[in-house]
Automatic annotation (TrEMBL):
Protein name as annotated: Phosphocarrier protein HPr
One GO location term (cellular component): cytoplasm
UniProt-listed PROSITE patterns: PTS_HPR_DOM, PTS_HPR_HIS, PTS_HPR_SER
GO term, biological process aspect, one: phosphoenolpyruvate-dependent sugar phosphotransferase system
Location relative to the cell: Cytoplasm
Organism: Paenibacillus etheri
Residues covered by the HPr domain: 1-89
Length: 91
């Protein structure tokens, strides 16, 4: 499953929101979660991986989940993106 976002936080994805995403992804043991941007795909269970994407305002980010709880995981990650003011769903 996948959702794509446009980054709207003027600071992009920095340490605090990246930590919120990693903590959320890690809660779902039977599910792999990935962030994909700028032609690079990293696990969402690694803070360094997420930060290595260097996401800035206006960039597009796809969150991808695979596994037994993929729908729940994607919903939780989408909630973090929206509640934290990081991004909006990009069709």
């Amino acid at each position: 499953m996948q959702n794509t976002f446009r980054i709207i936080d003027e600071d992009g994805i920095h340490a605090r929101p990246a930590t919120a995403l990693v903590n959320t992804a890690t809660k779902f043991k039977g599910t792999e979660a990935y962030a994909e941007a700028k032609g690079k795909k990293v696990t969402l269970k690694s803070i360094l991986g997420v930060l290595s994407l260097g996401l800035e305002a206006g960039d597009t980010l796809s969150l991808i989940t695979e596994g037994s709880e993929e729908a729940e995981a994607l919903n939780a990650l989408t909630e973090v993106m929206i509640k934290e003011g990081l991004g909006e769903i990009h069709e």
